[in-house]
Amino acid sequence: MKTLAKLPVTIVTGFLGSGKTTLLRHMLDNAQGRRIAVIVNEFGELGIDGEILKQCTIGCTEEEATGRVYELANGCLCCTVQEEFFPVMRELVARRGDLDHILIETSGLALPKPLVQAFQWPEIRNACTVDAVITVVDSPAVAAGTFAAFPDQVDAQRKLDPNLDHESPLHELFADQLASADLVILNKADQTSAEDLTRVRLEVAEELPPAVKIVEASNGRLPLDVLIGLGAGSEEHIDSRHSHHDHHHGEGDDDHDDHDHDAFDSISIELPQADESLLLDALTQLVVQHGILRVKGFAAIPNKPMRLLIQGVGTRFDKHFDRQWGADEARVTRLVLIGQALDAAQLEAQLRAALSV
Questions:
Q1: C or N terminus of the chain, fewer CB within 10 Å?
Q2: What angle do CA 210, 7, 37 make, to 5 degrees?
Q3: Predicted confidence band at 251 (pLDDT cuts at 50, 70, 90)?
Q4: Around Cβ 326, how many Cβ atoms within 10 Å?
Q5: Which of 242, 1, 11, 2 is nearest to 131 (CA)?
């Protein structure tokens, strides 16, 4: 019976800014009637990634769409599998007769191996299987030898994590993301020369078993049949995949319980309507001055009937008007700023001063 079949799960991993959320949006936009649940490994109490993904639930009511996205709020799947991840999966397992697939997006530094190993737990293993681990590679960054679009900011994240070897280069984290992969996407191919893309492919292939496929993409646009239905059963062989992170999370490693993410600040700011160019200029200044890793949110622009969605990684900002404001919806600007040692009052005061509000 269909309700007794194992529910396939796809895990999407990759550095900050590599295009993971864009890939998930593409998969949901092209679900072709599949009933898909999404677990978003999110920083920030506003759950911006979750809101973005909810927009892609074509043909569903808002209530139904909300029920399909599960957000883990503290930003590290690797270290919350026994706290938040397990209850979420248990709920999805109970509903697996109503689902066809689960997608999980990890945060930029949540290494996939411990998450895949969680699928060895009997209660999950009997009901779910890891269809594939997809590692999204930022091709221009690898070509440049930085491995991440904003290596200084990813490196700052890395240094805040006591479970990672702070002397190891970002290349080792990149290699660990590849070590668990069943499919590797060389993303942003349209931003990479043919010569560089060939070089990136060769470099990535050196880290992979021959059976792991490498595909190229722009904005994660790939046929859904390439992305799901791989049947890798990753939980069956993940223990044999070596990673640099292994010695930090070995059996009986008590240090895992001391993993402290308090060094990451997630600041929520609400502002009135703001001029678009002034807001983006002010946010850019904040990123430069305060080392902000990520900016997410929605802005109310005067005389515009639609809400402006803003996503920033470093000083690069993507923006577009995503939907009409609701008739009874307050037209306010809501932002989440993610970084280290952030002073909420100072950041809000600086933004208000720049916007003169």
A1: N
A2: 100
A3: very low
A4: 9
A5: 11
